[in-house]
Structures are given as structure tokens and as C-alpha cells.
Amino acid sequence: MENPYSAPKSDMGQSLSTDSTSMFSPNQITLGAFIGGPLAAVYFLYQNFSALNQFDKAQQTLRWGLSLCLVFICLLPIIPENFPNTVIPIVYCIVARQIAEKHQCSKQQIIESDLFRFQSNWRVLVITVTALILLMVLVIPVIFAFEMFSA
Predict the structure, then answer these.
(1) Is residue 44 assigned to a domain?
(2) Number of folded domains in the chain?
């Protein structure tokens, strides 16, 4: 079966397009989301949908993803202290990975594609750290405000 993400071939069997677009692999998305939080997951998925020219899905990802991030941030102060710390990150990592594999490209599809290449792991690292810092900037004031008004 031919890869749907391969560039059209000429009569000689050579690819007609030499330009390729960078995509985040499901592994990069999962690891970046686990460390960088839900904002990183939203960004990675948004960028992949944009690379696939699926701009409606990219916009949906922003709307739903940022809305869920806001709900997540607002619910953080009321989560019980004995709640396992890794449950929420594991859930949004699994969801992000499933979206990437089902609606975007699997790692193998990117490897076999003439149209796509992997994003740099350095870029994944920079985005992940930036998203983590941004998440802390958003979460810390919410937690302080909750602590101040609940005392």
C-alpha cells in the first residue's frame, strides 16, 4: 500500500517535490507533553495539523486544548493532596499521542514520506521548556490566590 503522505512520482519514479515540511512525531509529542504540560501538547498538535494543511482541525485543537488547559489550571487547587501526581499528565499524554497517531502521522508514515521530516529534538526541547515555564507562570498565581482566599 502506498503512503498517502508521499510526494507524487514522475514517470521515472522520482519524487516531484523536494520540499518537505517538519512534523512532530507521536513520541516527540508524548515526551514533550509529559514534561512541558498540556500547553506543549496543544502546541505540538496544532503545528502538526497546520503542517498537514488541516487548518480547521488546528483551530479546533487551539480552542479545545486551551479551554481544557484553563479548566485544568482552575481545578488544580482543589485536587486532593493525596491524588497521584502522574495521573493527569499520563491522561493528557495518552490523549495527545492518540490524536497524533490517528489524525496526523505515525512515526513510520513520517519516515516513509517524501513530504515530511521530523522536527528537531532541540526544537522539541525549547518548546517543552517554554511551555513548562508558561504553565508555571499561569498556575502559581492561581494556587497563591486560592491559598490566600481559603485561609
Answers:
(1) yes
(2) 1
Residue 55: Cβ-neighbour burial (10 angstroms; 0-12, 13-18, 19+): exposed
From first to last of its 151 residues, the chain has per-residue pLDDT tens of 445 555 444 444 444 445 678 999 999 999 999 999 999 999 999 999 999 999 999 999 999 999 999 888 888 878 888 988 888 899 999 999 999 999 998 899 989 988 899 999 999 999 999 999 999 998 888 888 888 887 6
CA distances from 12 to 9, 15, 89 (A): 8, 9, 48
Amino acid at 81: E
The CA–CA distances, whole Å, from 71 to 65, 67, 142 equal 10, 6, 12
Cell of 11: 514517470
The helix or strand, by DSSP H or E, that contains position 23, with its residue range, turns out to be: strand 21-23
Does 92 reside within a domain?
yes
